[in-house]
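As a warm-up, study this chain.
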Amino acid sequence: MLLLPQTSLLRALHTAVRDRNASGRDFEIYSRRIIRLLLETGLDLLPFEKREVTTPVGETYHGLEFPRRVCGVSVVRAGESMETELREMVPGIRIGKILIQRDKRTKQPELFYKHLPGDIHTDHVLLMEPMLATGGSALAALDVLREAGVPDENVVLINFLASPTGLERFSRAAPDVKVVTSAVEDGMNENAFMVPGIGDFGDRFFGTVPAAAS
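Now compare it with the structure written out below.
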């Protein structure tokens, strides 16, 4: 697991998004700044390729270029909050989607929808799942990628908040998957919400509930 450096800037951004009285616009703006940091860190874990270019003064620069086979996969719907930033950072990147919801009676994750590139097994995948509470949804999404032939070592989980329980469970079940997160919470309450928490990330980001009710 790779935790973003807990800088004063990052803590200020977290303070803004965790405030229950934050406006929907503020929540989106500051969340996107954190998301960009997460994606930059995740992209840096990919195997870059060597590339030489000639500079304007006629010299050779021995540099790197992005891997050609990279795909983003968002876990609907909170994961979709990361798509715009990723597409701005990697123009033309392909995006797959997985819809998993927790059964209200059994509390177990259920797969409702998936749409992935047919050749995703040859890609490095950024799996975008902002919330890692129990770890069930992230593991269910990973199973979808595994069934599509994606090796665990080719997956980077991009995560906004994680609980110690979720991290431990995910890491035990998928030790070869790299995890990037911006914060590890104190734990979870009786309703399986992380604390101190952020509320329902998808609802707050997309404005489907008043911020004060999050």
